[in-house]
Amino acid sequence: MEYWQKRYIRENNAFVGNAGLLTIDLPNKGLLGSVELRVDAFTGAIAGTPDFWIHDALKKIELIVNGSQVVKSLTGEQVLAMNQYDRCYADAENLYNVGADWQREVFMLNLGRIFHDRDYLLDLGKVNDPEVRIEYDFTLPANVNGWTNVCAFAGVPQLTYSCIPHLLRESDVVPKGYIKTSEVYRFQSAALRQENMTLPRGPLYMGLYLQSWYMNEGLGRNIDHVELNLDNDLIIPFRLGRRELDTTCEREFGLFQFIQTINATCGQEYPAPVESGRWSEQVIAIQDVIGGEGVLWANYMTIGGQDFTGAAAAVGNFTRQYMFKGRYPFSVMKLPHMADLNERTWIDSALLGDFWVRVEEPAGAGTHVIIKLLADEVVTKYLS
User: Fold this and answer.
1) Which of 119, 196, 234, 338 has its CA 20 to 30 A from that of 35?
2) DSSP secondary structure letters along 273-322
3) How far apart are CA 61 and CA 127, in angstroms?
4) pTM of the full predicted structure?
5) CB of 186 within 8 A of CB of 372?
6) What structural domains does the chain harbor?
7) Measuring CA to CA, how many Å separate 279 from each of 55, 104, 148, 238, 291?
8) Residue pLDDT, tens place only, 363-382
9) Of 207, 165, 166, nearest to 184 (Cα)?
């Protein structure tokens, strides 16, 4: 009987201090499909601004084998974005941030093309010392990725984590390989900048992603045109402007939905977990305040709310529940052309000359954000 075994190897363990490096040893045999991480943090008393999110504090989440070989290396919000594209959607209790209560976020490191892929898994028996490493910092200041209406965790936060490997058991599956994901290029955003983001040659690429994660400086603001260029202009699978990218990505990947519950004050600017979509809110337990709604352009919004007459903006701090629906989770755009489950669309860079993603920025591009290129690589050979 084939089944996915999901058992704790850590359950509600305390972090050591508020900043540092956490290492979790994984089993040394079995077919690993995913690693599930849950992090809980108790928020302080909130007075008008929420604490920063757990994913802000997780500066790097990595899966390492053989001492230093990277299998996965992503920031907290990048993992959450990848989970959307992997069809491994956010836990319903994710993104809960209210005063004097627990935040809880779940992160999945998936080794396959999609969640619980039975063709691509990491064979732990063919590597040494598999481990998860988490670089964390819960002492961040009250300004995170340009979000100024946020406060640091008050006092000494209570921090715990749990870890659950997803192992395929009692199976005759022989994996074709596994999917490595990491950042491969970055540059500083600037007005009218044109950048050829050159990819390392050699890997077989399954997916490419652009990220521009900074308050009011998302992809909607910083992208004029994007081009995929193979062999020095010999093959250009696409060259599209922002609006066409929006519609193309929606057709290929659909829209993404997040629910957030936060304490926030009317009129504050606030980062949204998606772009190019819509938001709506419901104010909880306050009968004389009407929730708002609006359109998402880049990756920010202004906290709404009116008095019960609808004639004036409400004043004060309230608990609100938001529904977001749009493209580009955490300002991560999966580039069109390559499809996870269609190997004919993957790009074997060993057969190419130069290979790059070209980004052209508009005159109004933001100047604070680092634009990043992430890549999914198909790994079929294990290092001895």
Assistant:
1) 338
2) SSEEEEEEEEESS-TTEE--EEEESSSEEE---EETTSSSB--SEEEEEE
3) 19
4) 0.93
5) yes
6) 9-169 (2.70.9.10)
7) 21, 22, 20, 30, 11
8) 999 999 999 999 999 999 98
9) 207
